[in-house]
Amino acid sequence: MALILSIDTAMAKAGIALSKDGVALSILENTVQKEHAAWLHQAVEEIMRTTGHHMRELQAIAVTAGPGSYTGLRVGMAAAKGFCYALNIPLIAEDTLKVMAFAAKDQTPEKHLLCPMIDARRMEVFTALYGHDMTPLLPSTAVVIDQDSFASWLADNKVSFFGEGADKCKPLITAPSAHFTVVNYHAGYLGIMAFLRYLRGEFTGLAYSEPAYTKEFYTHTRK
Q: DSSP code of 48?
């Protein structure tokens, strides 16, 4: 029996899930992005209490490592590493876009390629491309969207675009083979993928684990 706590604070909506052998026992979510840090530890306490479990029963902690919000990724990774250190259990880190694509598998037509998108400000998105069988076709990257984006893929394939960054791309990506859809995404999908990694012993080293920001962080200094 593998009891795994999954933490996803990479995007505007944060979520945690407590899963047993990949089956979600409970899922909690927060939609106020600025409150992810304050919400997270209270949510972990609540999910343990309401499911009748204790932190010492956990076999692993899973976290979305990026890409996504810089602050959100740091919040999730710091909490996950802290729990793992305190409980002496392994850390499982997963690509955010891969989890989104995994969630879309059963919610999109079988012949469609899967293109998750996370808003990266202006007309830029974090994105990747997967076959419907989760074969990686384009690694996670930051892309400025224009009218020619994904043209070579759309020429020969139907592609499902989804995620919080997809809406702003819809006016530009207008090929008949481009399909924009809403995918029901939550931390329970991370719990499924984490359980599979747990069975394979695919853990992330605590000492050197860090968020996968995908692009450099820039900030403005007030004069």
A: H
Angle between helices 187-200 and 96-104 (to 10 degrees): 110
Would you call 75 helix, strand, or coil by DSSP? helix
Question: pLDDT band at residue 223, thresholds of 50, 70 and 90?
Answer: very low
The full length of the chain comes to 223
Q: What is the pTM of this model?
A: 0.93
Superfamily of domain 3-96+186-200: ATPase, nucleotide binding domain (3.30.420.40)
CA torsion 117→118→120→126, rounded to 10°?
Answer: -50
3-state secondary structure (DSSP) of residue 179: strand
**pLDDT tens-digit series, residues 77-88:** 999 999 999 999
What confidence score (pLDDT) does residue 216 get?
58
Per-residue pLDDT of 127-137, as tens digits, reads: 999 999 999 99
Q: Under CATH, which number does the domain 97-180 receive?
A: 3.30.420.40
Query: For the chain, what are the domain ranges?
Result: 3-96+186-200, 97-180
- Contact criterion met (CB below 8 Å) for 48 and 54: yes
CA nearest to 125, candidates 108, 111, 138? 138
